[in-house]
Amino acid sequence: MRRAYFKFSWIAAALLAPQLLIIFVFFYWPSAQALYWAFTLEQPWGGGNTWVGFDNFRKVLSDPYYWGSVRVSVIYALATTVLAMTMALTLAIFVDRQLAGYKAYRVAIIWPYAVAAPAVGLAFQFVFNPGAGIFSYINTIAPGWWDLSKYPWQAVTAIVVAGAWKQVAYSFVFFLAALQSIPRSLTEAAAMDGARPLRRMIDLQLPLLTPTFFFLLVINITDSFTDSFGIVDTLTGGGPFRATDLMVYKIYTDGFRGFDYSGAAAQSIILMLLVMALTFVQFRYVERRVHYT
Amino acid sequence: MAEISIRNVAKTYGKTKIMDGINLEIRNGEFVVILGPSGCGKSTLLRLIAGLEEITGGEIAIAGEVVNQLEPRERGCAMVFQNYALYPHMTVAENIGYALKVAGVPKAERLARVAATAKSVGLADFLDRKPGQLSGGQRQRVAMARAIIREPKVFLFDEPLSNLDAKLRVQMRHEIRRIHNQIKATSVFVTHDQHEGMTLADRLVIMNKGTIEQIGTPEEIYEHPATLYVAGFVGSPAMNILPGTVAGDGRSVLMADGQAVAIPAGFKAEAGQLVQIGLRPERLTLMPAGQGGLQATFLFFEELGSARVYHLQIEDIPMCVVLDEKLTLIEGQRMGIGFAQTALHVFDGASGRSLTRPSAARKVEEMA
Lengths: 293, 368
Known about the structure:
The complex is a heterodimer. By secondary structure, chain A is an all-alpha fold. Chain A has helices at residues 10-38, 55-61, 64-96, 102-108, 111-114, 117-128, 136-141, 152-180, 184-192, 197-208, 210-226, 229-235, 247-257, 261-289; strands spanning 40-42, 49-51. Chain A has a two-stranded antiparallel sheet with strand order 1-2. Chain B is built from nine helices and 20 strands. A six-stranded mixed beta sheet of chain B has the order 6-7-8-3-9-10, with helices on both faces. In chain B, a hairpin with a 2-residue loop joins strand 9 (203-208) and strand 10 (211-216). The chains are: A mainly alpha, B alpha+beta.
């Protein structure tokens, strides 16, 4: 490992300051605050608090609604990840094989990643709307069959599709880069060895994508846990019957609608630990283990 | 076992013409080396034979069957790539056996054949390793084994030795020749290294800028280069080239400094024609000033151990002479350069075609 040492200089400090300030104000300060609230009982309207130790955590972990939220969060994370990565890989293989029109959608496919989550949710609100969207045609055939606000499984499906749609771009870029970094001569050698394109994909390309695959798996799952608020908020509002009450969304509703700052803070800490654990797995195992030289 | 016919083959990328009108007949069991500088189209020609590139004109036939439209897997060729192109996630055994696995050969037979092939190239102890754990020479052997195990009709080698260090390169060269003598499959070997070309080839094909300059045995190429290009490319140190004009009597060449070199009878040269005289450094001797066919000024020498390369110049044209003898000379000393009439090559100044070897030029057309 190469290390660089820099002398302290006021210019460097000045240049770093804005970024550090932003991180401090929007991450460390709120995190510290959340940590403090998680161990105290906070008054909804301010004005004093009491140290309660792990009481908040006990309360959260014994709440069946919380476990329902964990359950749907895990389902959401896994489903979005699988769906997004499958679509991304399929598209990346098409682009890598330079099928017709690949140049156009190589560019077009990056765009969804640039769209903010609430906008994605809003867009899909129009798509999935039981009265006006594309899906409303289902209701003209089978009246009342499609309604996000009525059927939990439909609501979950909707946020999964919207979430995956947003994630595809990111995975696509990585898969494409990985596919294109496989030396051409390897593919040619396999072609000479008698393997047809599909066979080459299974025996050669997919195994060589393993490092990228694991990297994307962790990144996608982490993103699904943390970056889903906007979609849920605009598309389902956590309902129906808390069916899409993801962990991030529950933190928001408990804290800012229910004014249970302490409970929300405890949930934040749990979510933060979960993300930290995933990041740890990413750095410790995935990045080190799966490599070909 | 198969012969390869390359008839009038052309290849263009978009508007760029890589090669045009390439004709080459490779006999069954022959070891042909295509030799040329980088960018001359030699690798492209090999890839056209393999089917990795599409032909834009002409046709290629392997064992009498035109293969223009066939996929690489249907052509019965095996190829050894420059960077070996081993599958990094597979063990040595899996790499060698991959073609058999794809072909659906039963596991027991496959393993037996992998073991036998690995043994024949000295890899028996490395079957469980991954390519990343092998040295350059071992990787090269895996690439060889992967080609051998398929018992192909044709072996194609794309500069397979250029990533190895000098010592290993010589060793693998011998290995390749030994394997060829054993299995006698038609082989086409592409290289830019003239030593590899000379030592490996039954026949050499010299390519330059997308055309074939000369086809012949290494000896023919060395002794009777058909063009100035071949003369300069093959041989180390390179052939001395001296520009001159054919004298009025047509029996000698006048050089810029007024010296005349007598040329052998029996070839067409008109008085006043611009020509290039070629003399191989190994075919020259040094004599006291005033003797020999040419007079030159000594500059310095390079010690090779077994011999010395003496550098001289005639006016400002450099000359070198390779001699076993260790002479004591001083810089600026005038020396005579001696040579036999048979050592003299004369090339046309404009076309670069050999004039002393009209038969060599004809030979190229015959092959075509």
